[in-house]
Every structure is written in C-alpha cells, then in structure tokens.
Amino acid sequence: MIDERLERMKRKRNCRVYFDADSFQISDCTVAPVHDIPDVIHENQEFDFYVESTYDVYLLRIIHRQDCVVSIYPAKADGIIYIIISIPISKDSIKENIQKILHALEKYGFPTLKNPKSNITFNI
Q1: CA–CA separation, 20 and 5 (whole Å)
Q2: How confident is the model at residue 31 (pLDDT cuts 50, 70, 90)?
Q3: 7, 37, 72, 111: which has the highest count of C-beta atoms within 10 A?
C-alpha cells in the first residue's frame, strides 16, 4: 500500500514538467497535450496526452481510427499506466472526445484507476 502510494507520488512528480500553459481541465483532471493537434488529422495518426487526476498520472494515447476501442496497459516498474484509444477525432472535438473517454473509464475506477494486473480492452 505504501509502496503503491510512493510510486504514484513519484510518477506525479516526474510528469509535472508536461503540465504547462497548453494544459486544460476536464472534470477534476488536468490534461496536457504532448503534440500540437493539426487542422487535418489522418487515419492512424496518434496523439499523446498526460492526464493527471488527484490520484495518479496516466498517459492517454488517442489514435484516429473508426473502431472505438479502449485498451488499458499496466505500468511496469517505474512506469506509467497507458490508456490507448482508437476513436475518430478532429481538432475541434478533441476535448469532448477526451471527456467521453474519461467518462467511459469510470467503470474501471477512473479517476482513481489502479494499476491493472493485465491488459483491459473494451469498446466504447
């Protein structure tokens, strides 16, 4: 329990550098884009975001595709929990899409999503 809490604190401290003026709020989370979002998004183009809740920090990768699948990958030692989503996106709808994704993750424990023992995949 204490080790898990220390790991979360270390992740939050290490990821703090990514949260700057480009970050935005969605519910109780701060979302920091890693990439600039272009006006035209091509099929299979990927965009990364750090998502910080009061509990932990997660890496959210959105892949512009039509299949609407979410995969949660457990953090390895000193790693971060990856949340990879395939969903159709546009520059104008990115915040709404992230809000939809975070809402879909609630049934898996988000915003206090604990490190899963194995991969979790579901459709949205």
Answers
A1: 24
A2: very high
A3: 72
Task: Yes or no: say if 31 and 50 are a contact pair by the CB < 8 Å rule.
Answer: yes
Output the CA–CA distances (angstroms, integers) from residue 3 to 8, 9, 16, 99, in the order listed. 9, 10, 20, 30
Cross-strand bridge partners of residue 8:
none
* Residue range 80-117, pLDDT digits in tens: 889 999 999 998 989 999 999 899 888 888 888 887 88
- Strands in the chain per DSSP E: 24-26, 29-33, 46-52, 57-64, 69-73, 81-87, 120-123
User: Which bin fits 93, alpha (ψ -120 to 50), beta or left (φ > 0)?
Assistant: alpha
What whole-number distance in Å separates Cα of residue 25 and Cα of residue 46? 21
